[in-house]
Amino acid sequence: MIQLKISKKDALMWFEFFAMLPEDEELMVNQQEIVYATFAQIEAAIEDRNEKLKKDIKNLKSLDKRTLYVGDDKKFPQGCKSCLIGSGLSAVRKTNKCNIECKFCYNYGELDDIAPIGEGLWEIGGTKFYEKDLDLLLAIQTPPTGLAYVLLEPFMEIVIYYPVIKKFSEAGVYQHLYTNGTLATEENLKALGAAGLNEIRFNLGASNCSDKVIEMIGVAKKYIKNVGIETPMTPEFFAAFKQKKEAILATGLDFINCAELHLNPNNIDNYAGEKMYIARRGYISPIWSRELTLKLMKMADEEGWDLVVHDCSNDTKFARGLNLSGKNDHWFGASNYACEFARIPYEVFLPILRDERFVFLEEEALPVAYQPLRI
């Protein structure tokens, strides 16, 4: 493969053609090179824009070259450290239901079709366990540096979580839990703290910065040591956060994880028409997601917020995969970071290629072998 600095005009022409092809039609090798060259051109331009935003953040920090953040080092979430520098973060799954539907949800459109874990069972590391099996698990295997309770909304049946959290707490395992917060109460937050939960993360974007959820963040801080927000960074969340910034900061939360929104076949149609890029031929994201994160980090740094704002970007997800593979003795370079589409959705890249304001950093004419056939 030769190095292609394809022009945006040529990239648009080819991608309009690729978007019209039947789903089962394979591209020729030269056409694949055009696709990858286009992705590289878009990504390089996005990276250049992000680098300029980073330079505006005076006190930008790095966690061992794996992710970026601003704020008090002591408040960087331990759950994220498990992912990025620890022995890994194991998912504990139980609840297959959610009480709301968010357009950024990776299970959008299939929330009623998520298979149950099983009566009385918990899924840990892909294996089903009864609560009585946890002593056996802890006796045989060394736990990871962290456990996370995920999928879908634990507060739908939060009372059954208490004894499991207590068991792992007694074994010295660091645990955190994700929630949209709409079902949280002082009673169940106090019970989670008493059971030994170390960290709770509120997806504040799921409720559009609901006053009730903001209140529960403050309540959680009374009973659980580490409390934060973890939300896909979207324009809606960014606007709502700025409007309610003072109330949110007054809760005393420890961190805000700004997740770069990446899209899968379930939720990508909710963002039709947005300008997209693909990172390392892996995650597909709207270009505004990380830009908004960096703008929020600049705001936090300049205003001296007493918390950490973490750039949980596609770069961070890539580092996470490398760390996990390295800690589990996989081969050098192994990672679970990958594209979530069986076939590249060429059409989603047309808006950015049609945007006259978006330019490639450098362009060259395509070699003859990469030009369309002329009849």
The CATH architecture term is Alpha-Beta Barrel
Q: Please state how the strands of the largest beta sheet are arranged side by side.
A: 1-2-13-10-9-8-7-6-3-4-5
The end-to-end span amounts to: 26 Å
CA radius of gyration is: 22 Å
Oligomeric grouping of the chains: single chain
Fourth-level CATH superfamily: Aldolase class I
What percent of residues adopt helix (DSSP H or I)? 25-40%
Order of helices and strands: HHEEHEEEHEHEHEHEHHEEEHEHH
Q: Overall pLDDT, averaged?
A: 96
Shape: globular
Low-confidence stretches: none
Query: What's the total helix number?
Result: 12
Residue share in β-strands: 5-15%
Structural class: alpha/beta
Tally of distinct domains: 1
The number of strands is: 13
Q: What name does the CATH topology carry?
A: TIM Barrel
Largest sheet: 11 strands, mixed
- The level 1 CATH classification is Alpha Beta
